[in-house]
Write a structure and sequence with these properties.
Strand content: 15-25%
Largest sheet: 8 strands, mixed
Strand order of the largest sheet: 7-8-10-9-13-17-14-15
Number of strands: 17
Oligomer: single chain
Shape: elongated
Bound molecules: ligand BES, manganese (II) ion, zinc ion
Helix content: 25-40%
Length: about 500
C-alpha cells in the first residue's frame, strides 16, 4: 500500500521554494500571503487566470510552473468557489482535490497556504479536514504492484506542510482527524487485501495490533464458541480449512462503570456462497465480504487513536464461507446461541448466521447502551440503494436519527428502511423457528428481520453496507475499490451522541 504522506501544520507565511498552493474565490481575490507572493511575481495570477480562462470555481486549479520573481517551482492556485457556501465537507473535498492535482503533477513536497481571500479565519477543524481529505485521497492499494510507477501513473506526494494562522490549534485538531483517517485507511486496506493474504488468522493479528493503542483484544476460538453454543457462526466456518474467531476489542475511554456502546461486524474473509455456490463472474469481489468487520476494526483504531471519551466494544465474527466435505448443506438445521433454531436453506445467506451469534454475544456479555452492526449482507441492498447510501434498520428512532445525522455530516450516508412484523412471515420455516432466506422480495429487509431475532431489548441498528463498502464511486476523497465506509460515520455518531 502506498505510504501515507506526512502532513504537518506550520505557521502561516510565504513559502520561498518548492511548490506552493494558494486559494482564490470566484472574484479571484487572494488572501494576504497569496497576495504578497503574487505581487512579488508581478501579478502573475491574474494574467495566468485570464490566459487559462480560470474562474476560481470550487476545486478548480490553475498551475503556474516556475513563476518569475519567485523561488518557487510551481504556484498552484486553487478555487474555493463561493466563500459563503463553504461547509465542513467542502474542506475535506478540497484537500482531496488538491491531493489529486498534486500527484497528477508529480509533486512530492508542497506547502499549502491555507487562508481565505476574505481574510476570515479558518477554523482549526476545517484546516484539519483539509489534511484529512488529502490523507484519504492519497490511499492506493498497490502493495502487489512490482512497479509502483508507470507512464500513466504519477508519483506519490510525500511531504505536505499546511500553513495556517494558528498552527498550534490546527495541530491539535489534526491529531484527532488523523486518527480517524487512519481508522478509515485501515478499513480500506482490510477490504482490499485478497483472501489468501487476509484470512481469519491474519485478521486477528490486525485486531491484535490495536493493543499498542490501548485497545484490549480478546479472542474466542472455535472451541470456546462451541462451548457457548455459537453454532450459527460455526456452521458457516465448518466448510473452510481456516478456523473461525470471534474477536472482541474494547476501548475504555469513558467513565468506569459506564455501559459501553457496541459495534458488531460481519467478517466473512471470503464468501464463495458455500454449497449454494456463487457464479464465477465477480466472485473475486467477495474478498471484501469482511467490510463490516473492517469498519468495526477501523472504528476502534479511530476511537483509540483520538482517545475518545467513551467506552466502546467492537466485536467481529471472522469466518470463511467455503464448500467442502464438511461444509453445511442446504436443509441443515442449527440452533444459534440464543436457542433460536435456523433452517439453512441457502448457504450463501451466511452473513446473518455469523451476525446472529455475534449480536447475541454482544448483548449477553456487555448489556451495551446500544448495538450497531455493519455487514456486506445482501445483494438486494445494492439493488435498492446502489453504491451511494447504506441501508439503515433500527428498532429505536433516536438511534436511527443519530445515525442519519452522522451520515449526513460525514458524507457516509444512510437511508432508513423498514423493520416490520409483516415481513416475519417471509422467514418462517417449515421445519425450524426461522429460515435463513426470505425469498426474492425485500431481500435486504428480510435479512434485517432475521437479525432482529437475535437482539432482545437493546437499542439496535443494522447497516447493510454491501453497496457502500466496496465498488465505491470515485470521489474527491476516495479513489479506490474500497471506501472504508462506516468508520467516519460511526466515529461521528459516537462523538456527537456519546461523548457530549
Ligand atoms: N456477501 C453477500 C452479499 C453481497 C452481495 C455483498 C454483493 C456485496 C455485494 C451475501 O453473503 C450473500 O451472498 N447474500 C445473498 C443472500 C441470499 C442467498 C438470500 C444475496 O444477496 O444474494
Ligand atoms: Mn453469501
Ligand atoms: Zn456474504
Amino acid at each position: 500500500m502506498a505510504t501515507s504522506p506526512s502532513i504537518s501544520f506550520v505557521k502561516q507565511g510565504a513559502p520561498k521554494k518548492g511548490v506552493a498552493v494558494v486559494f482564490v474565490d470566484e472574484k479571484l481575490a487572494l488572501g494576504p500571503v497569496a497576495k504578497a507572493l503574487d505581487e512579488e511575481a508581478g501579478g502573475v495570477i491574474a494574467r495566468a487566470a485570464k490566459a487559462a480562462a480560470f474562474k476560481g470555481k470550487a476545486r478548480s486549479t490553475l498551475d503556474i510552473v516556475a513563476p518569475g520573481g519567485l523561488g518557487l517551482d510551481r504556484l498552484m492556485v486553487v478555487g474555493l468557489g463561493k466563500l459563503d457556501d463553504l461547509g465542513e465537507q467542502d474542506w475535506w473535498n478540497l484537500g482531496g482535490a488538491i491531493m489529486g492535482k498534486l500527484s497528477a503533477a508529480s509533486v512530492s513536497e508542497v506547502t499549502i497556504v491555507l487562508e481565505r481571500p476574505d481574510g476570515a479565519e479558518i477554523d482549526a477543524d476545517d484546516a484539519a479536514n483539509v489534511g484529512l481529505g488529502m490523507m484519504l485521497r492519497a490511499y492506493k492499494f498497490d502493495t502487489y504492484k512490482s512497479k509502483k510507477k508507470d507512464e500513466d501513473e504519477n508519483g506519490d506526494v510525500k511531504k505536505i506542510a499546511i500553513a495556517v494562522a494558528d498552527a498550534a490549534k490546527a495541530k491539535k485538531a489534526w491529531a484527532r482527524a488523523e486518527a480517524v483517517g487512519e481508522g478509515s485507511l485501515l478499513a480500506r486496506k482490510l477490504v482490499d487485501e485478497p483472501a489468501n493474504v487476509l484470512g481469519p488468522d491474519e485478521f486477528v493479528a490486525e485486531a491484535k495490533a490495536l493493543e499498542k493503542l490501548g485497545v484490549s483484544v480478546e479472542i474466542l476460538d472455535g472451541k470456546k464458541m462451541r462451548k457457548l453454543g455459537m453454532n450459527a457462526l460455526l456452521a458457516v466456518a465448518q466448510g473452510s480449512a481456516r478456523p473461525p474467531y470471534l474477536v472482541i476489542m474494547s476501548w475504555n475511554g469513558g467513565k468506569s462503570g459506564d455501559k459501553p456502546v457496541a459495534f458488531v461486524g460481519k467478517g466473512v474473509v471470503f464468501d464463495t456462497g458455500g454449497i449454494s455456490i456463487k457464479p464465477a463472474a465477480g466472485m473475486e469481489d467477495m474478498k471484501g465480504d469482511m467490510g463490516g468487520a473492517a469498519a468495526v476494526t477501523g472504528l476502534m483504531k479511530a476511537l483509540a487513536g483520538r482517545k475518545a471519551k467513551v467506552n466502546a466494544i467492537g466485536i467481529i465474527g471472522l469466518v470463511e464461507n467455503m464448500p467442502d466435505g464438511l461444509a453445511q448443506r442446504p436443509g441443515d438445521i442449527i440452533a444459534a446461541a440464543n436457542g433460536v433454531t435456523i433452517e439453512v436453506l441457502n448457504t450463501d445467506a451466511e452473513g446473518r448466521l455469523v451476525l446472529a451469534d455475534a449480536l447475541w454475544y454482544a448483548e449477553e456479555t456487555y448489556s451495551p447502551k446500544m448495538i450497531v452492526d455493519l455487514a456486506t449482507l445482501t445483494g438486494a441492498c445494492v439493488v435498492a440503494l446502489g453504491h451511494e447510501y447504506a441501508a439503515l434498520y433500527a428498532n429505536d428512532d433516536d438511534l436511527a436519527g443519530a445515525l442519519f445525522a452522522a451520515g449526513t455530516a460525514s458524507g457516509e450516508k444512510v437511508w432508513r428502511m423498514p423493520l416490520a412484523k409483516e415481513y416475519d412471515k417471509l422467514i418462517e420455516s417449515k421445519n425450524a423457528d426461522i429460515k435463513n432466506t426470505g425469498g426474492r422480495w425485500a431481500g435486504s429487509i428480510t435479512a434485517a428481520q432475521f437479525l432482529q431475532r437475535f437482539v432482545k431489548d437493546t437499542p439496535w441498528a443494522h447497516l447493510d453496507i454491501a453497496g457502500t463498502a466496496m465498488g465505491s464511486p470515485k470521489t474527491d476523497i476516495s479513489q479506490g475499490w474500497s471506501s472504508g465506509f462506516g468508520v467516519r460515520l460511526l466515529d461521528r455518531m459516537v462523538a456527537d451522541t456519546y461523548e457530549k
